[in-house]
Write a structure and sequence with these properties.
The complex is a heterodimer of chains A (301) and B (271). Chain A has 13 helices and no strands. Chain A has 301 residues and is mainly α. Chain B is mostly helical and 271 residues long. The two termini of chain B are 40 Å apart. The chains are: A mainly alpha (301), B mainly alpha (271).
């Protein structure tokens, strides 16, 4: 009798029950409820929640409505942030991982240091960098001045400096996370591949290009996907560092959704907005997936 | 020669990378005036713990209370995740029942659902449960960890069946096999999941900012933004707050680095 057959199905459901209660209540039900809310004029604090059909979606797509501009402004902010942060968060951590993959003294200490900021919360990271990037008393402007660069940049309230700050801080904060994933990928590449490349006369650059990069493709795809999703969900950095300034230019989509739904209690509209953002994200994920598949296909043939 | 040069470059870059955190730690021991002095100083003169004394006792920003809240919430959340996910993952890895494939597929597919979709409806649900402005709102909803089930399911499936078989031959019940054979063998995986859950919950920001209102009910992360609005130019206080909010996670990280880094690199899904 196999291990699996020793117990009745009832036992299995007992094991599953505690998790399924949580999962049903806080994951499955909300997905459906979110759609339902998005079809209503839904204010948590009011008793009446009239059904409005697709009006919330129509509003978000019609240029005359009150919500059109702030919503698409915030989508644009999320877009800008994603476009600039994702490539950096794909390339810089790879460089760090390649360095950490060499043998040298104290390698584990270096690795620990590069990962350390990631264990800090976004609130800590935001508060800390708001201080360091302060236009007048911040250490960053002070040291830039010392080496002869402009020393009065308004990092948190002017463009494009605010984007440089938000992207830069995010790269500093999360590069260790991506680097660790790359590092695991690098350690999985078999030494034989490098040996074979050497026999074929490949230098270190050629073996990086023809062995390392192709072998890392699945890892790179994974890093790209999770980084896009993380960047598109950016909230805390803008909430704490710039509070959306200048104007609402750095207010991201999540920031807009949270403010609209959980502060102004226009939950129907916020739920609709979060569905639009989600569809964008899923579309993007499919595109990224397709891109890596396509590249894989042509190289294999 | 080139090797030494490369090593030097690496040391300099690493020092530069971590210098903001060192500067912040030092600033938290400065006087209010020295904290905003230009050019900035590195070594506090005089060295003072004023900032800590002030924030830990202030009534509108009770940082010590926030610390306890965060500790309680993150611990309870980690326990809840490990208990519910290990039970479910074991059933999915080792038991036969109708609908198993569907349940597993349903759980795994939610790994790809962007969490933003849950925020608005979960606020409504938590409100209906009368959990708004309580720690239950921080502890329970995020404990439904699809990642945890997926992660432990893979681990349990990789354990050798013989040990469980022989326990059954010795007359053990399913529950005994799970608690006396499987769980002890899974300590590293359980520790990794507990640690990642604790870190994630401790650092969660958007959700606590909106579901907790009273000053005494904040978590440290949400509290930091209250602290910032209350003392926007008192950088000595803000940096002391940032240090208090970071010390537990940094300590955990230093003590259990292997679990944190391996957990991330093996799965990477927690992001």
């Amino acid at each position: 009798m196999s291990v699996a057959r020793r117990s009745s199905a009832g036992v299995a459901w007992l094991f599953l029950a505690p998790y399924l209660v949580l999962f049903g209540t806080f994951v499955l039900a909300p997905i459906v409820l979110g759609l339902w809310i998005s079809l209503h004029s839904w204010d948590f604090t009011l008793p009446g929640k009239p059904f409005v059909g697709l009006d919330n979606y129509v509003d978000l797509f019609s240029s005359g409505s009150v919500s059109f501009e702030p919503f698409w402004n915030s989508m644009q902010a999320t877009g800008i942030f994603t476009v600039f942060s994702v490539p950096l968060l794909i390339v810089v951590p790879l460089a760090v991982a390649l360095a950490m993959n060499q043998k040298f003294r104290g390698r584990n200490i270096f690795r620990a240091v590069f990962f350390a900021p990631y264990v800090l919360g976004v609130a800590v990271v935001g508060v800390v960098w708001r201080f360091l990037l302060d236009r007048n008393i911040g250490a960053v402007n002070n040291y830039l001045g010392t080496i002869g660069l402009p020393d009065a940049t308004a990092w948190l309230s002017s463009l494009p400096a605010a984007w440089v700050a938000l992207v830069g801080v995010t790269v500093w904060w999360t590069l260790g996370f991506n680097a660790v994933i790359y590092l695991a990928g690098l350690q999985d590449i078999s030494a034989e591949l490098y040996d074979a490349a050497k026999v074929d006369g490949a230098g270190s650059w050629a073996s990086f290009w023809h062995v390392t990069l192709p072998s890392l493709r699945p890892v790179t795809m994974f890093v790209t996907l999770i980084t896009i999703i993380a960047s598109a969900n950016m909230f805390g950095q803008s909430f704490i560092m710039t509070n959306g300034a200048p104007g609402q230019d750095t207010r991201t989509a999540i920031f807009y959704i949270a403010e609209t739904g959980l502060q102004n209690f226009q939950m129907g509209e916020a739920a609709a907005a979060s569905w639009i953002l989600t569809l964008f994200l899923m579309l993007l994920s499919v595109l990224v997936f397709g891109f890596f598949r396509l590249r894989g296909g042509t190289e294999a043939s | 020669m080139i090797k030494a040069l490369r090593y030097t470059v690496l040391v300099v870059l690493t020092a530069l990378f971590i210098s903001p955190l060192v500067f912040v730690l030092l600033t938290s021991f400065k006087s209010a005036r020295e904290a905003v002095q230009t050019p900035p100083t590195w070594i506090p003169n005089p060295f003072t713990t004023q900032a800590y004394e002030r924030i830990l006792t202030a009534s509108d920003t009770p940082v010590f209370r926030w610390f306890l809240n965060s500790m309680l919430a993150a611990t309870a959340n980690a326990v809840l995740v490990v208990v519910t996910a290990s039970l479910a993952a074991y059933a999915l890895a080792r038991l036969d029942f109708r609908g198993k494939k569907i349940v597993f597929a349903l759980i795994v597919s939610t790994l790809f659902v962007p969490p933003v979709i849950l925020v608005i409806p979960n606020y409504e649900i938590v409100g209906r449960l009368f959990w708004l402005d309580t720690l239950l709102a921080i502890i329970v909803p995020t404990a439904a960890s699809a990642f945890g089930v997926f992660f432990l399911n893979q681990f349990f499936a990789s354990l050798p069946l013989e040990l469980e078989e022989s326990a059954f031959l010795d007359g053990a019940t399913r529950w005994q096999v799970f608690t006396k054979v499987v769980l002890p063998l899974s300590k590293p995986a359980l520790a990794t999941l507990a640690l990642l859950s604790f870190l994630t919950n401790w650092n969660d920001f958007l959700w606590p900012v909106y579901v907790l209102f009273s000053p005494e009910n904040q978590t440290l992360q949400a509290g930091l933004s209250t602290l910032q609005s209350a003392n926007s130019v008192r950088y000595d206080l803000l940096m002391a707050g940032a240090v208090v909010a970071s010390v537990p996670v940094l300590l955990l990280y230093l003590l259990a680095q292997r679990f944190v880094i391996e957990g991330v690199s093996r799965s990477g899904l927690k992001g």
